[in-house]
Specification:
BirA Bifunctional Protein, domain 2; single chain; binds 3,4-dihydroxyphenylalanine; 10 strands; two-stranded antiparallel ribbon; alpha+beta; 2 domains; 358 residues; 8-stranded mixed β-sheet
């Protein structure tokens, strides 16, 4: 019996002294595990005389219970202090300054293309595409600009090496070939815009050898100049965000439209600044016209049955006017300081209201 008391107090002392859960678990295994001291004592019960077995059995079972309870109580304490230590070591100092995150920006051209697309999407247009490397046929001939036409000289075309037939592919000088590709591939009614890269050998503050245009094409039965005017007036007012923006249609010439009109918006200039809106001056912003009957015929359409209008605008020019960017070349200099100044945060980019199909 004395030995049992001794065992009990030894074990309770060890439990009391344990500072880690692992130590406590070791004590548990050594005492109560299959081969633990208490378990070994219990195993001897069977061999004892009945009288002794009763009192010894009672005593050792009591010790077993006391030791098990003490281990459980100590485990609770150690677990709580381990948690407290963990919380203390992982605490976050909310008063620390946040490291500056330099977010990316949307390029003003991306933004402008999104804006143009959103406005035309609301008018039921979808987006069409064509290749940057074009054939002479799509870039010129099908658009009613035959081989010796003087308009070809104005385009400062980049020609590529001749192919096996001797024909020289061109970097498209305008997005207008997408008109032809769209008409060849689909039936009226057609209502598309085609934003994309274009190329001309030209480089100064308002020209870059690679730049962007957005083409537009509407084909259907009974489409007339009134539709052209309504559509483009609405576009100009929405794009510049000026409700009563004056829009002027000035007679012009393009080989692929007849009649043709250049579109000007009202502006005023004061102290070297330019203000868009009703004023005493005009700014040219896009070209347009009724699709030339020969162009319709080139695409297999009967000009007596379908008509339409087309337009084309320079995206850099629109972005420069809207966002006050003075030099076109800076669009392509990939200068981060410029991007931080003229770029747009993600949430600034307009959502497309009706979405784009195509
Ligand atoms: N392609 C013309 C250019 O690059 C712009 C243009 C004018 C496109 C009139 C059109 C249009 O579709 O109808 O200068």
């Amino acid at each position: 019996m004395q030995a049992i008391d001794q065992l009990k107090s030894d074990l309770l002392q060890q439990i009391e002294a344990a500072e880690e859960l692992a130590t406590l678990e070791g004590i548990r295994v050594d005492a109560l595990g299959k081969k633990g001291v208490i378990s070994e004592q219990l195993k001897q019960l069977g061999a004892m005389p009945a009288e002794e077995r009763k009192s010894f059995g009672q005593a050792i079972n009591e010790v077993k219970q006391i030791v098990a309870d003490a281990i459980a109580a100590k485990a609770d304490i150690l677990q709580a202090s381990a948690l407290a230590a963990k919380l203390a070591s992982e605490s976050v100092d909310v008063t620390l300054p946040v490291p500056a995150v330099s977010g990316g920006r949307y390029h003003p051209l991306t933004r402008t293309i999104e804006e143009i697309s959103a406005i035309f999407a609301d008018m039921g247009f979808s987006v069409a595409e064509g290749p940057d490397v074009e054939t002479d046929y799509y870039n010129f001939t099908a658009l009613n600009i035959p081989p010796e036409h003087p308009a070809r000289q104005e385009h400062d075309t980049f020609y590529l090496e001749p192919d096996e037939t001797g024909a020289r592919p061109v970097l498209r000088t305008q997005t207008s070939p997408v008109q032809i590709r769209t008409m060849e591939a689909s039936e009226p009614p057609i209502r598309i815009i085609a934003p994309g890269r274009t190329y001309r050998s030209d480089h100064d503050a308002t020209h870059s050898p690679m730049f962007h245009q957005c083409e537009g094409l509407v084909i259907g039965t009974d489409i007339h100049m009134g539709h052209l005017k309504g559509c483009l007036i609405e576009f100009c007012q929405a794009f510049f965000g000026v409700e009563d923006l004056p829009v002027r249609f000035r007679p012009s010439f393009f080989p692929f439209t007849e009649p043709s009109a250049e579109v000007d918006i009202g502006c005023s200039r004061k102290d070297g600044g330019l203000k868009i809106g009703a004023g005493d001056d005009w700014l040219e912003i896009l070209g347009s016209g009724m699709v030339h009957p020969q162009v319709l015929r080139n695409c297999g359409y009967d000009p007596d049955k379908v008509q339409g209008f087309a337009f084309g605008m320079g995206i850099e020019r629109l972005a420069m006017l809207k966002y006050g960017i003075p030099d076109l070349r800076t669009f392509y200099e990939t200068d981060l300081r410029w991007m931080r100044h003229y770029g747009f945060m993600g949430h600034d980019v307009p959502a497309l209201h009706t979405g784009i199909v195509g």
